[in-house]
């Protein structure tokens, strides 16, 4: 039939492979598919604007997503652990573990100073509302490792994903504060090293932004984050990681080549270490 969504699909086929579509389609067809060249056009426009040193654009794009004009929120505006304002994330667990502690009162997270305090109050902690304070607090990172609460990870990954998208210096046209973005990437990397596992938000950011990366902006930090990509299928790694890197690799200096190889070597080492941790003891050899 001539439903609008089928017409849109047929028009897309006719655009790229006209020999496959022999019927006549109406000229005006509702758009159901985004333009795949959007990210490239946005990246080229960003480079052109920077080279011309003209006024910042009022509208920026990150992989086809419109960037809000206001960028007042900064990722590091709240590094100190604030007074907790979130709901108690461990409430359900507390009901099931009544024998582990005698009171249901929460322990103020801003008073958490030592590891013994963490051990004594681990089931009474209320996670802070500002997720930025978690990345720089070893005790809260320990807490994340001990209490595998999915809601905590979802909050952290959502927040990190938003910051990475809005602050990326080579994807957002009017963002030229590379030093601040470098600091954030370095902080995320140190948190991954502490936890000995990569953040899925960082993995998603790398896969989306590497095709637009020039190989120069925040190079050390980007290569460090690459070394903590979680173990996945080779087809994913090949298309999302190796493909974009290969285009830069063959046209860059020997220093860049060595840096990429070192990062991939560290990635393999992290995979092996993670695999050994979860390996069955009888297959230890």
From TrEMBL:
GO BP annotations of the record are: CENP-A containing chromatin assembly; mitotic sister chromatid segregation
Is the keyword Nucleus assigned to this protein?
yes
Q: Does the keyword Nucleus apply?
A: yes
Q: Where's it found, cell-wise?
A: Chromosome, Centromere; Nucleus
Entry's InterPro entries? CENP-I (IPR012485)
One Pfam family assigned to this protein is CENP-I
Any idea which UniProt keywords this protein has?
A: Centromere, Chromosome, Nucleus
**GO cellular component term, pick one:** inner kinetochore
Similarity-based family: Belongs to the CENP-I/CTF3 family.
Q: What is this protein called?
A: CENPI protein
Species of origin: Campylorhamphus procurvoides
Give me the gene this protein comes from.
Cenpi
């Amino acid at each position: 039939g001539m439903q609008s969504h089928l017409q849109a699909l047929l028009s897309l086929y006719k655009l790229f492979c006209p020999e496959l579509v022999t019927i006549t389609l109406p000229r005006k067809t509702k758009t159901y598919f985004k333009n795949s060249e959007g990210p490239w056009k946005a990246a080229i426009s960003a480079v052109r604007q920077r080279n011309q040193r003209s006024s910042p654009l009022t509208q920026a794009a990150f992989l086809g997503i419109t960037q809000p004009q206001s960028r007042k929120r900064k990722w590091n505006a709240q590094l100190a652990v604030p007074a907790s304002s979130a709901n108690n994330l461990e409430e359900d667990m507390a009901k099931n573990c009544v024998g582990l502690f005698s009171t249901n009162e929460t322990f103020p997270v801003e008073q958490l100073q030592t590891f013994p305090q963490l051990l004594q109050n681990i089931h009474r902690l209320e996670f802070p509302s500002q997720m930025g304070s978690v990345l720089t607090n070893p005790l809260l990172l320990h807490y994340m490792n001990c209490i595998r609460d999915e809601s905590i990870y979802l909050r952290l990954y959502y927040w990190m994903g938003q910051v990475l998208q809005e602050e990326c210096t080579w994807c957002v046209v009017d963002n030229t504060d590379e030093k601040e973005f470098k600091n954030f990437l370095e902080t995320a990397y140190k948190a991954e090293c502490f936890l000995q596992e990569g953040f899925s938000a960082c993995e998603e950011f790398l896969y989306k932004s590497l095709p637009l990366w020039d190989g120069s902006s925040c190079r050390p930090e980007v290569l460090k984050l690459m070394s903590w990509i979680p173990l996945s299928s080779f087809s994913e790694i090949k298309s999302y990681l190796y493909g974009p890197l290969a285009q830069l690799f063959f046209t860059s200096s020997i220093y860049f080549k060595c840096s990429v190889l070192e990062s991939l070597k560290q990635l393999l080492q992290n995979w092996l270490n993670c695999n050994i941790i979860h390996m069955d003891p009888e297959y230890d050899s």
